[in-house]
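Posting for a labmate who doesn't have an account.
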Amino acid sequence: QIVKEKGTETKKTLETIQELAALAKEEPAEALHFFSSERFLEMPFMKAGSDRTLYRGLMEGGSEERAMEEFLTAVGEKEPVRLSLAEGKGIFENPDKDTFGELIIEKNTWGYTALTMESDSPWLVLEKKRAFDFDFVENRMAVRYVLDEKQLHGGNNIGLITVSTASQRLTYEVYVKKGTRKTEKGRMRRADWFKLEQLYLE
């Protein structure tokens, strides 16, 4: 069957929910156009009252992309997208200039993904604060952050990056030790002076 809607190009009608899931995986924009069209509720696989109620409720949420993702998940045609971090922390010691780090975010499967990232420290600067599924390459995404050396204080600096989606919250810790080497050198110099003083007194 062929569906032709006003203002759109001709598109093939999907006959089953499985066909919609397959199209969403390979051509998400095409699947979204079909999912959000006025004809969607007239499709053969949308006769069940529970599915129609689910669809209407999700479409009222404001994001058509998220609605399609949650619909396919709810009817059992795909697993939900889950994020994870390749590592839980980054450790740096005595940076003498602005230094870059990298946070690796992974997702378990295809599907719509929208996430935000926040830093809780002024010296920990993210290069981006929002990302989507198209930012992932083979289900992995690298997010760079910068350690602002001028804003680091002496001793231990601990910062937190929070990665959030509608259903998840992940945290990545950044540890920076600053001034350790300088302190050790200072202690060595004091020890040398003490030895010289002792020799002089003897």
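Reply:
Got it, the structure tokens are right above this. Helices lie at 17-26, 28-35, 49-59, 64-74, 180-201.
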